[in-house]
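Below is a filled-in request sheet from our internal design queue. Each sheet records the structural input a requester submitted and the sequence that came back. We keep these sheets so that new team members can see what a complete request looks like end to end.

REQUESTER: design group, bay 2
PRIORITY: normal
MODE: inverse folding
CHAIN LENGTH: 501
BACKBONE (tokenized):
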């Protein structure tokens, strides 16, 4: 690392704390850690993260305002049931950042390209046993930063690093194809939704209008894009947009009664009684077992409502799995009001396919059917793990997603074996901003030595049990999701910190 750094190679900053990323999570952390005068490194030239880099002109908040707010800074119109636009969401974040005066900590256009552990790797397993060893004011991590104005890297040293680089954005997930069946043989245009987000309104509608567009995916990015595509193709000259659906998941309408049912059965303290929690007592395990018919009944009730409200059967989009599996994996997307209206007009068509590949004129499916296309847009999601692994050094890089291939974090925040580093924004629940704010507060109290961590072994054991529970609850175990026990976990974290919710 030092070879590429500007001279003097190491900037020993006045701050002992670095924050990487200035999305919702990084800004929440800057507020909670402001008494440490952190240095925030942000790769782009603004705050907002995914709300700047991977949202469309039509993107709206899919959570309610109350479920997407900082406890210490409520939305001005928090009872308004309408969905705020991306500009309103960005305004809200900016107001928060200005209100708590955290913008002064941010170094924009400063991309962290490498982290290096500044201590000798010692201990039984060949690396330092973390968290037990006080840093005694000495640097633990070195950070190499690429800025816009120099070809050389700037290197900094810190005692504590908080990573908030986000699970989405930056690195798209691109499907793999058999040889001679990939993008290279397709005559049309191929892009990922992250590229589409960079287009202005005019360029976006030029791309879609009058063209046969295939959108791959059936989650929020793909669903919203299909609606934008349908709207650009109204009238006789319009072309239908084809959505390639690999797994139909339960999708939610923006409907007041659904919202009411959902909050009552899934986001209330009493609703968590029905669901297993990590590291629960035998008594609670028994209670959950006895209540499991009720839990399944609630799931069925939600399914019946959705099948009544949305034409899922008509379009072959009825999921094969229970509703509760989508909740336990944080997989549910909200559909814009006009999504099925556009399908009814024939402007959106659905193609179920487990496998697909390119041919010269379009896409071919595993049932030997083909469709022609001028443009193929991949709404296939993001590779957040790759983004993180790019900057983490070994042996930590290999530990971070061991053993399940997804982030395994104690309290959704620290890895028991990665010292003086925390990660926020990697667990999902119904209330992502609240979760990031609480975790940032927890990290701040930990750094202020307001409470002590459990031993490394106990934290590792509890983390594994939590991951095991998430895995048991859903076959779509792709990201850490605490939706069914987030209130309980927040209570536990508050107790640990000595505060109340
Ligand atoms: C389009 C979209 C809409 C969403 N809508 C909702 C919603 O309605 N409700 C909900 O609950 N959740 C939603 N989410 C989930 C969303 O990810 C979180 O709600 C939240 O905004 C994530 O914030 P974050 O700060 O953790 O990550 P991000 O917003 O991804 O911010 C990470 C920041 O880190 C910076 N960064 C990355 N790498 C580096 C580096 N190496 N060096 C320096 N800086 C770096 C990035 O530039 C970025 O600014 C949405 C996600 C997307 C993609
Ligand atoms: N507020 C908003 O309006 C908004 C807008 C956009 C995104 N978001 C959020 O941003 C996050 C990312 O969402 P996302 O929709 O971009 O990604 P995502 O949730 O990861 O969904 C990816 C989609 O692509 C499909 N897919 C992946 N590879 C495929 C392949 N090879 N063939 C066919 N289909 C494939 C997946 O199918 P499988 O299910 O089969 O894997 C899934 O339907 C989510 O948290 C989402 O809620 C929010």
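RETURNED SEQUENCE:
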């Amino acid at each position: 690392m030092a070879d590429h750094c500007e001279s003097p190679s190491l900037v020993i900053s006045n701050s002992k704390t670095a924050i990487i990323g200035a999305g919702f999570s990084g800004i929440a952390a800057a507020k909670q850690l402001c008494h440490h005068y952190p240095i925030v490194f942000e790769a782009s030239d603004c705050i907002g993260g995914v709300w700047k880099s991977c949202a469309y002109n039509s993107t709206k908040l899919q959570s309610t305002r109350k479920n997407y707010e900082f406890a210490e800074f409520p939305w001005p119109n928090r009872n308004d049931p309408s969905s705020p636009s991306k500009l309103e969401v960005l305004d809200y974040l900016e107001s928060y950042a200005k209100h708590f005066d955290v913008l002064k900590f941010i170094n924009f256009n400063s991309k962290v390209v490498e982290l290096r552990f500044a201590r000798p790797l010692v201990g039984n397993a060949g690396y330092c046993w973390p968290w037990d060893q006080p840093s005694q004011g000495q640097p633990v991590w070195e950070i190499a930063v690429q800025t816009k104005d120099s070809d050389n890297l700037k290197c900094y040293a810190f005692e504590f690093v908080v990573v908030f680089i986000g699970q989405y954005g930056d690195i798209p997930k691109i499907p793999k194809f058999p040889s001679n069946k990939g993008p290279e043989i397709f005559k049309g245009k191929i892009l990922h939704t992250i590229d589409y987000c960079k287009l202005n309104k005019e360029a976006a509608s030029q791309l879609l209008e009058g063209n046969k567009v295939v959108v791959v995916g059936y989650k929020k990015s793909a669903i919203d894009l299909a609606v934008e595509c349908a709207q650009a193709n109204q009238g006789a000259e319009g072309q239908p947009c084809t959505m390639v659906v690999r797994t139909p998941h339960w999708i939610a309408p923006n409907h007041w009664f659904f919202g009411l049912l959902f909050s009552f059965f899934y986001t209330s303290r009493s609703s968590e009684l029905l669901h297993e929690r990590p590291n629960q007592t035998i008594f609670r395990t028994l209670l959950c077992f006895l209540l499991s018919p009720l839990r399944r009944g609630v799931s069925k009730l939600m399914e019946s409502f959705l099948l009544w409200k949305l034409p899922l059967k008509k379009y072959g989009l009825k999921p094969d799995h229970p509703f509760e599996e989508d909740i336990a994996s944080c997989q549910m997307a909200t559909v814009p009001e006009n999504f099925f209206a556009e399908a009814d007009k024939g402007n959106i068509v659905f193609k179920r396919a487990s496998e697909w590949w390119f041919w010269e004129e379009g896409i071919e499916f595993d049932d030997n059917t083909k469709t022609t296309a001028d443009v193929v847009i991949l709404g296939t999601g993001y590779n957040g793990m790759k983004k993180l692994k790019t900057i983490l050094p070994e042996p930590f890089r290999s530990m971070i997603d061991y053993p399940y291939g997804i982030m395994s974090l104690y309290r959704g925040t620290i890895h028991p074996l990665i010292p003086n580093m925390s990660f926020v924004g990697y667990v999902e629940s119904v209330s992502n901003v609240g979760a990031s704010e609480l975790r940032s507060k927890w990290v701040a109290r930990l750094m202020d030595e307001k409470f002590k961590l459990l031993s490394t072994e106990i934290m590792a054991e509890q983390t594994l049990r939590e991951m095991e529970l998430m895995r048991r609850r859903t076959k779509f175990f792709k990201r850490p999701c605490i939706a069914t026990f987030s209130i309980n976990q927040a209570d536990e974290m508050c107790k640990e910190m000595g505060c109340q919710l």
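SHEET NOTES:
- The mean pLDDT is 92.
- The longest helix spans residues 282-309.
FILED BY: M.R.
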